[in-house]
Task: structure prediction
Amino acid sequence: MSSSRLRSPSVPYPNTAFRLISYVFLVIFMGNLGALVDLVRHPEIPYLDQEHLVTGGFTALIMILLLVVLETYLARRRQIDEALRDSEAKHRLLFESANDVIFIHDAKARMLAVNPLAVERLGYTHAELLSMTINQVDLLEEGQHTPERIARLIEHGHLTFETVHQRKDGSLIPTEVSTRRITWDGQPAMMSICRGITQRKQAERELQILSSRNQAILEAIPDIITEVDTSKVYTWANQAGIEFFGEDVIGTEASFFFEGEQDTYDTVQPLFDGAEDVFYVESWQRRRDGEKRLLAWWCRVLKDASGNVTGALSSARDITDLLRAEEDRLQMQRRVQQSQRLESLGVLAGGIAHDFNNILMSVLGNAELALTGLSPSAPARENLLEIMASSHRAADLCRQMLAYSGRGRFVTEAIDPMALVEDMLGLLKGTISKKALLNLNLGKNLPPMRGDASQISQVIMNLVLNASEAIGERSGVITVSTGATECSPEYLKETYGDENLAPGLYLTLEVSDTGAGMDKTTQGRIFEPFFTTKFTGRGLGLAAVLGIVRGHKGALRVYSEVGKGTTFKILFPVSEADAESLVRKNDATKNDWQGEGTVLLVDDEETIRTLGARMLASLGFTVLTAADGQEALAVYREHRGEIEVVVLDLTMPHMDGEEAFRELRLIDPEVRVVMSSGYTESDITARFAGKGLVGFVQKPYSLAKLAEQLQSALNE
Result:
């Protein structure tokens, strides 16, 4: 490339003739100036042509002034020319020694100049490049964008973009181009500085591959991984985190998902204060479907290059199922220990009762023989009668011990539980405290149970007396209830009794009180022989009750809370014949009251949904079912115009009955909801007071009780 192409055009200097004329005028001016001086000094002397003399003088003066201006301009111009030549040399040096390829081209992309590096980098000769256009240097696909880029450059004056240059040998060079508008030889032109970015592109590809790999790893990890800033606002979450918290987790403060764990939430503050780099914490979090889950968090602080805290990266693992499995294991272990302890005590009680009965047989036999040989007036007769009475009481104690051990002999017969309780009504009222009110809630049309009526009576009497003593001197209510319920294997696992009880239909005998209640420690010992919380307590008590229940192949559950009373629920199995009898008798009750319309039954237990649907159908209803609160809302929205009443379970996963009740009220403020729960009616009434609940049925509920609540709800 010729260096003259980079030289600026020179400014022409005035010619020598012009300067000589200026000097002639200077001489004339000096001559005329002398004449003028003589004229001023000697006005009396005549002078030739004074007018022409003055005119010539002024003309010469003007030319002198022009000459001064010209000389000043020429001196300044020489300085500018020297600066331009110096600048031209510097720019030529920069142009030729630049580490980037430089093209100068016109608006039609024709090459006007190229630096030596362009020749070296692209493999063309200098002449070849000057005969080419820009789009011929670019890869074919990139060259198609040249007109568009030139148009944008003309509009904005500068442009930076990436392209691919193609060498003469066909190899490719990824290039970043920075182009500006310039003036070249007095004409508009464009200068492009091209920098090879092959290494950068390779680094970007490697970084992208690494980033994609890391992203795939993070998305494949089943643990929740999140990032928060210093304000504890989520800025990123992997797929597991989004599935757990929901799509809107990004931009939400972490405290929103803590479920009543403000203290735990505050414990991670040292991480953001820079006091700790790593932190472990367990907290209950609210999942996007509303369910509470326990998460184990490992948190690590994030810092910038200056060591300032910028946020935290956290990994969380859902350990709810592990926690529940551990709780189930411990509960099973306690149940096994309790069963083993009761079994050991039962063996001991049975052995003692067996031996003690032999001794009593000797005492009673000898007392009776002695009594038969005495006259009615003998002084020892009363002593023998007292011995016989005491022996009979001891025999009753032996029977209780045998009942506790499960080895008692029962006189089995068909027993109507309702009739049995009604027959005992007078005796029960006479034995309870005057402060206690006896309330009977007896199911109708229950199948008869098979058992020993005297033993079942003893169970009822024992539980009622305990309830009366729990109420004490305060006013309270003792409720005796009978009914039938479908029991699942999970429900039976929570009972005291035989470990091998089969799921199915069970008769229920329930005695509840509003007394003082029991704490967990007391509940753990109530079935131990001779254990009592009463100062004057004695005997086997609840241990005998449990023995009788086990002897009848039944089970027992206890619900108690300090200050809220106690409920003992006893389950007796029903045979297939008894179950069929129950269905037939329930069918007979349809004539008593029949409903119409559709009822939505919501319960997470499949057995309860099945049995409940049969009971509702027997009452004349069309039945829709749902397994949880969320499904119930969907069903209600779809069949809102058909559903007359909703029977809603209180305790369910995902969305419990209380939350589902609120959502149903939002959908339809006039919705009729009958709540179902194992809690007592007083608890539910207090919990939903003033919230629009139309009824409550306590589990396990009978057909009569269910019909009563539905009839009341529909009549409101």
Notes: Confidence is low (pLDDT under 50) at residues 1-13, 535-539, 581-591.
